[in-house]
Design goal:
alpha/beta; Rossmann fold; Dehydroquinate synthase-like, alpha domain; 2 domains; two-stranded antiparallel sheet; binds 5,6-dihydroxy-NADP; binds zinc ion
Length: 384
């Protein structure tokens, strides 16, 4: 088990009705920039509920709406200008990962002299950030309790993240009832995303971080049990609540302590999103089984077998269990959750594969099995 540090300053208010705690924002000042997406929070009534609480707590609310999935750097720049013009004290994101990441980027960008994209190129330049508060409406990214913010500059076909402890939200409200209206497609994609966050840490060469591995398996089993229930019964509180807490824990750091390893499927998926504006979770669901098959060997079968035995209750020798576990993963994504299986289904062909592989490869040197650009190209070709 490797040395580690673990620091999460985010206060979570979990459960029905916890939005009343938005009154606590007054601890951070009086002027808040509310960031949201394409309008789901208005349709769901969360917007008016939040406004009533904020106003009765004496807060002055400014707004930045229209954040798109795969959020754009241009929107963050717009928010930074709004903050500067209005002396904003804090950010409040109400939405999914795209909205939260935009708010985080604004919080850091407003405290930085240069352009916000420079913080993505070099996160050590993040020296301060305004306080960040979130109300989560979609279980997937874990941004509500982590240090990352992912932005896209689609004009240059780049999707990348900034990362800093200063981006960890001060408080997040996680009310599972807000996710009852998340579409089938987005519920499936979000489940694939949280599974992928767990895999990225679980498939590690460190063999003795026992607790982290068991913790990861509990998250995986939670996704496998409750993902299909949430699809069949969107307003099943038990399913939505367990998925919400799983998504938060998959990427708040707790599941990787002592076994940290370079991520693999995410850098590859970010290339798909950068060039084709792909839904993040759908891109991951296509890549994961191909990545698994590509790295399965006598040297790695032990970890896949651990996954098969502890998550899928399989029995047998390592290689046999490993292969069946990968097949079960495919069945879960494509047959049970209805996620797309091939890049062809997303109208993506061969033409940019070598380019995307060359872009992703430098980030993959510290992965469970380090990959070069020919590996990535082979994985992507298998996805076609
Ligand atoms: O825009 P609105 O109207 O809010 O609609 C959104 C959006 O269209 C909708 N939605 C959200 N909550 C809803 C709802 N619809 C009905 N009912 C609700 N309660 O869902 C759509 C997708 O929202 P989005 O925020 O884009 O989804 P998600 O949470 O999956 O975020 C994806 C983004 O986060 C990044 C991804 O790359 C992608 O850009 N990630 C961020 C991470 C992080 N910060 O740590 C880690 C992840 O690996 C990921 O890369
Ligand atoms: Zn992800």
């Amino acid at each position: 088990m490797n040395n580690f540090s673990f620091y999460v300053p985010t206060k979570i208010w979990f459960g029905k009705g916890q939005i009343s705690h938005l009154s606590e924002l007054s601890e951070s000042g009086s002027r808040v920039l509310l960031v949201y997406g394409g309008g789901s929070i208005k349709r769901l009534g969360i917007y008016s509920e939040a406004m009533t609480i904020l106003k009765s707590a004496g807060l002055e609310v400014f707004e930045l709406s229209g954040v798109e999935p795969n959020p754009r750097v241009e929107k963050a720049r717009e928010g930074i200008a709004l903050c500067r013009a209005n002396g904003i004290d804090m950010l409040l994101a109400i939405g999914g990962g795209s909205v939260i990441d935009t708010a985080k980027s604004i919080a850091a960008g407003v405290c930085y002299d240069g352009d916000v994209w420079e913080l993505i190129e070099d996160s050590s330049k993040i020296m301060a950030a305004l306080p960040i508060y979130t109300v989560l409406t979609l279980s997937a990214t874990g941004s509500e309790m982590n240090k990352n913010a992912v932005l896209s500059d689609l004009g240059r076909s780049v999707k990348a993240s900034m990362s800093s402890d200063l981006l960890k939200p001060k408080m997040s409200i996680c009310d599972p009832t807000y996710t009852f209206t998340v579409s089938r497609r987005q519920t499936a994609a979000g489940t694939a995303d949280m599974i992928s966050h767990t895999f990225e840490n679980y498939f590690s060469p460190i063999r003795d971080s026992y607790l982290s591995s068991r913790f990861s398996e509990a998250i995986l089993k939670t996704c496998i049990k409750y993902g299909p229930i949430a699809l069949a019964e969107p307003d099943n509180y038990e399913a939505r609540a367990n998925l919400m807490w799983a998504s938060t824990n998959a990427i708040n750091g707790i599941a990787k302590v002592g076994a940290e390893v370079g991520w693999c499927c995410h850098p590859i998926e970010h290339e798909l999103s950068a060039y084709y504006d792909v839904n993040h979770g759908e891109g991951l669901a296509i890549i994961i089984p191909r990545w698994m098959r590509h790295i399965l060997s006598d040297a790695t079968a032990w970890k896949f077998a651990e996954y098969g035995r502890n998550v899928w209750d399989l029995e047998g020798g390592d290689m046999e269990v490993a292969e069946t576990a990968i097949a079960r993963t495919e069945e879960f994504f494509y047959d049970v959750m209805g996620l797309p299986k091939t890049l062809g289904e997303l109208d993506i062909g061969e033409d940019k594969i070598d380019l995307m592989a060359a872009n992703a490869a430098p980030s993959l040197k510290k992965a469970f099995v380090p990959l070069d650009k020919s590996d990535v190209a082979a994985i992507l070709r298998a996805c076609l």
